[in-house]
């Protein structure tokens, strides 16, 4: 059975897409068959995987699959073969998806319905959410039911996490489902005092509930992005590979 994973944090600038790409890369490096879905209208994941041309491609796109119930099977036509894992790219038309979904029937279930149409039996589907809370992020949370949270080791993350958890609880109550927090990735961690304090806060807050991984700021992660690959295909070695492999190993355990 496919394990679906949403990466979400409505606070922008946390490196969410970098985490998503490298988690997908780590899962692939451990031998898993992975599909990466870029649900962000900005298309950073699409660009970061070297598929910028797909972002401007003519219909059908992910926008059509989400908005037209009859177009759901076309999600199979959107799959691109990346050297590490398959990708459903975002598209410039996705900027219109949020307002149009507001009035659509079963508006928050469209992604789940589309993923159910996939012909290929992936072991993992990794969904990169927009940096906002709305219909698209709700679609990802309801479709995946598993949430990995990228966050910065900064004081501003506390309020952002409170808002995210409130939204998850609202969806759980409204739809009668469980959305599991599978972990938190503290991203671009530096060595200043605030970062040290926040790492302590993460550990104290989530101890016994979910694991917390620390990914330190490394230029190799940016260079891998510029090459359109994860750190696992990038030519430089990076000590942060271990953190992402640990995330992947935990996800495999949860998926069993």
TrEMBL record:
<dbReference type="InterPro" id="IPR025669">
    <property type="entry name" value="AAA_dom"/>
</dbReference>
<dbReference type="InterPro" id="IPR050678">
    <property type="entry name" value="DNA_Partitioning_ATPase"/>
</dbReference>
<dbReference type="Pfam" id="PF13614">
    <property type="entry name" value="AAA_31"/>
</dbReference>
<protein>
    <submittedName>
        <fullName>ParA family protein</fullName>
    </submittedName>
</protein>
<feature type="domain" description="AAA">
    <location>
        <begin position="5"/>
        <end position="173"/>
    </location>
</feature>
<dbReference type="InterPro" id="IPR027417">
    <property type="entry name" value="P-loop_NTPase"/>
</dbReference>
